[in-house]
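Hi P.,

Sorry for the delay on this. The queue was packed all week, but I finally got your sequence through. Input first:
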Amino acid sequence: MPTFSSNPLNAPSYSRIFSKHPALFGVPFVLLIVGASYGLQQFTQTRYELHDQKVTAMSKEQELGLAKNRRKIDIREEYFKLSATSGEDWEPKRIQRPKGLPEWGVPPPEPPTS
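Then the structure:
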């Protein structure tokens, strides 16, 4: 039985060129990938710039609204204000427990009924 040759009889010309010089196939492919990356970069940059414009517009409106009545805050002053009024204005009051709930530390005799 005769063996088949490794070269076909009617091989296309581009097949022989690519087998001798594989870079002719790889270089255009790499250029396509890099070019597409730069092309998509423009679309994503536009998207983020539009989002950034919306955010800065909102913050400027809020800044104008907050800057009118702003006063400087001193943490020590606030602490002394709270400590001076903390014991005078309130007193602890005991409220009635709902029926079926036990005192603290005492287990319930039976589950509460609804």
